[in-house]
Amino acid sequence: MGANNGKQYGSEGKGSSSISSDVSSGTEHTPTKTPKNVATSEDSDLSMRTLSTPSPALILNPNSPPLSSQTVTNGLESSPSGCGVPGETVTMVQVHAPPGTRPSKCPHPAFIDLLPDQVLLQILAHLPTPQLCRCARVCRRWYNLAWDPRLWRSIRLTGEQLHADRALRVLTHRLCQDTPNVCLTLETVVASGCRRLTDRGLHAVAQSCPELRRLEVASCYNVSNEAVFEVVSRCPNLEHLDVSGCPKVTCISLTQEATLQLSPLHGQQISIRYLDMTDCFSLEDEGLRTIAAHCPRLTHLYLRRCAYLTDDAMRQLALHCPAVRELSLSDCRLIGDFGLREVARLEGQLRYLSVAHCVRITDVGVRYVARYCPRLRYLNARGCEGLTDHGLGHLARSCPKLRSLDVGKCPLVSDAGLEMLARSCVGLRRLSLRACESVTGRGLRALAQYCSELQLLNVQECEVPPEALRSVRRHCRRCIIEHTIPAFY
User: Fold this and answer.
1) Extents of the domains making up the chain
2) Checking CA distances to 277, which of 228, 263, 426, 442 falls within 20 to 30 Å?
3) Cα 8 from chain centre
């Protein structure tokens, strides 16, 4: 921007402010006043301009197509008719769009300017975080509306190359302006996939947002135990935590300082109900033991591919977390029948269980679960090659309300087990028999006869006659059949 533009903005008066943000810069932005009627070069002008609202360049996805230099009106693209105030150049690196009020050259106001504030707030409520920051640069009215606390119950950031630490620091700082040092409205922070997020970004959230209830940082491999401990210690209402794909996270616990400050009765308890630690490869029995002891309110726990967990960890889980309703242990290959016996102690609470590819599990473990968890609705035992028709018989007798079952790649499951299952679990809706070599048309005909509510049937890599599949389609009209049989269409 040349010297002429500097003169123009300098003459707008005290009510205007200008914005400059460099994505490659890590400095904080604080409001300052621009001298009147001072013409400066481009470099000096940028160094003097400061940020009154976070720049969308901080939170836009750098992988998206770059914005070309174009004329905008107060941060929005000018209309083809040319009605609007002189615009500014917008790039991915620097954004100049003061939220001050300028005299309009339009003879008539835009239709959107006639809408009442309440209607505009409802429109802005549907915008993602980057676009909401962009709207704050249109004019003074939009600035005030865009930063209405009711619109900032959540922050959602995306992009592998995003400077997530800086974005969270700037946003939380701005949200704390009305209530110094604390933001009482923010309840959700989602930064999944932001590979550059580190403990510094979560430190800003923990320091400023005590009312946080949901945090998702999946695949942020630079996040460690230290930041997670601080968040759960400073955000006592946190209920939903997703740290899947964070290999440096090995435990969930309070910081030592927080434990000392709380009473002995409540000092060890965390309010988390939903915890996803999928692909936290370093999680071991000791870590899960600590999690179970500190998070007694857990209802949803996902531990997929935590390969170091053993049966002893399941004992601690059942002992301290009796309210677990959904549990995933897929690919935890060290867990066997003894571990399922401990899981069965959850009794009437368990609804969802996944033990896919846990090769040590046999009919014995399934019998424990079926006997003590009669309200089980979903079971994924894909790849448990020790499961036979006897295991299906236990499920049929004890879990009549079963809705979804996956026994794919269980070569010992045959028509006899399917017949018992079909007669007892008439409400079955999803069934996968993929690569079950012993299944023939007899078992499928039993399903067609008794399970009229079936919605999905997977028989890929199974040698079944097309006539049996046609029978299923005829009796289960809403059923989608996944198959690899060319003769069936």
Assistant:
1) 1-151, 182-423
2) 263
3) 45
Q: Which residues have CB under 8 Å from 8's CB, separation 6+?
A: 86
* 281-296 pLDDT tens trace: 999 999 999 999 999 9
User: First and final CA of the chain: distance in angstroms?
Assistant: 65
Tell me which residue has tokens 């067609």. Answer: 448
3 state SS for the chain: CCHHHHHHHHCCCCCCCCCCCCCCCCCCCCCCCCCCCCCCCHHHHHHHCCCCCCCHHHCCCCCCCCCCCCEEECCEECCCCCCCCCCCECCCCCCCCCCCCCCCCCCCCCHHHHCCHHHHHHHHCCCCHHHHHHHCCCCHHHHHHHCCHHHCCEEECCCCCCCHHHHHHHHHHHHCCCCCCCCCCCCEEECCCCCCCCHHHHHHHHHHCCCCCEEECCCCCCCCHHHHHHHHHHCCCCCEEECCCCCCCCCCCCCHHHHHHCCCCCCCCCCCCEEECCCCCCCCHHHHHHHHHHCCCCCEEECCCCCCCCHHHHHHHHHHCCCCCEEECCCCCCCEHHHHHHHHHHHHHCCEEECCCCCECEHHHHHHHHHHCCCCCEEECCCCCECCHHHHHHHHHHCCCCCEEECCCCCCCEHHHHHHHHHHCCCCCEEECCCCCECCHHHHHHHHHHCCCCCEEECCCCCCCHHHHHHHHHHCCCCEEECCCCCCC
CB-side exposure of 105: number of CA atoms within 13 Å?
Answer: 11
Tell me: pLDDT of 192 over 60.
yes
Residues 231 and 254: beta-carbon distance below 8 Å: no
Burial degree of 43 (CB within 10 A; 0-12, 13-18, 19+): exposed
Please give the single-letter amino acid code of residue 465. Answer: P
CA proximity to 339, closest of 360, 308, 323, 320: 360
The Cα–Cα gap between 425 and 422 comes to 5
Task: Report residue 80 as tokens.
Answer: 């083809």
Q: Which residue is it, tokens 């599990």?
A: 361
Q: What is the CATH number of domain 182-423?
A: 3.80.10.10
- Write phi, then psi, for 423 (nearest 5 degrees): -70, -30
Instruction: Give the contacts of 7 (CB within 8 A, at least 6 positions apart).
Output: 37, 38, 39
| pTM of structure | 0.78
- 272 close to 239: Cβ distance less than 8 angstroms: yes
